[in-house]
Amino acid sequence: MTHQAESLEMCVTESIRLRTDFVWRGDRYAHAVTLINPQGEHLLLESVEGDPQDPWPPSPAFQQLSMQGDGAQRVAFLVGMAGKSHWSMSVEVASDQRSIVFDVACRIHLAADRLCSSYRAPSFEINDPATAVAEKESWYCRLKLDPTLPQHAQMQNLPAGLLRMECLAVPGTLPGTARWKYAVTVADV
Fold first, then answer.
1. Which residues constitute the domain of residue 171?
2. Residues 6+ apart with CB under 8 A from 81
3. Edge-to-edge, what's the strand order for the sheet holding 139-145?
4. Does a structural domain hold residue 1?
5. How many domains is the chain built from?
6. Prediction pTM value
7. pLDDT tens by residue, 5-40
8. How far is 72 from 187, CA to CA, in rounded Å?
9. 67/29 Cα distance (integer angstroms)
10. In a domain, 50, yes or no
């Protein structure tokens, strides 16, 4: 089976774009978010993946990718499995055309060690448990957990430029579904 790389891109202004690339690595899709401006391409986030033996990987394990729509209406849908848990994620451009939104869910059948999305994110600094910022001379980006899911997740800085969004709303009865949502926004352009 061939696993084709795909991208989701939005134009924030004439000279600034935000792109999410989905690439096959090993047994799953990884993803990266890049800001593109006249000064070049700036990698903002790169997912940290686990391996096939890891029932609770550092990021959701996605084995299938489906792209639907086109232009600003294009949406990526990903599904997969690790251990006995099923993962899903949608990635889309927000209606304000300034954010890419990640909506993640996991159907849990056994008690979870940790549910999270982990990234290499050397430019981001966490301001509070729900917000991180990355700033250079020519751009400013914000990574924010969705406030409509209060206390469902929190951000944590890890050593070596790693950032983790950990889901806190693990179901009390199993099977159950946990969900967390976050957005990368180009701000103050």
1. 6-186
2. 61, 63, 87
3. 64-68, 75-82, 85-93, 99-108, 176-186, 139-145, 131-136, 125-128
4. no
5. 1
6. 0.93
7. 999 999 998 899 999 999 999 999 999 999 999 999
8. 18
9. 13
10. yes
